[in-house]
Amino acid sequence: MIELTERAAKHVTDYLENRGHGEGIRVGIRTSGCSGLAYVLEFVDEPNDVDVKYHSHGVNIFVDPKSKVYLDGLHMDYVTEGLNEGFKFTNPNQKGECGCGESFTV
Fold this sequence. Notes:
With 106 residues, this protein is an alpha/beta fold.
């Protein structure tokens, strides 16, 4: 399961409303950085047939089957820290991350 906080869900919902279309968000991973994996977020206009679909606080979350094993149990929040704001990922599968926080290992 993948879960959004209410704050994260509101951010996604507001963005989709301003955008004027979209079915939800896709969460995935890609090879990147010094630790190996990085999170990828994109808006979904048309889900893929193979996507696994979750629903959290009114938001559809789509995950490709290859990423699902790395993201099971993922908790996403939307946070403001100083002048920066963005999604914060809490992943129970994560074993470590690089010093800059750009990538992680499982």
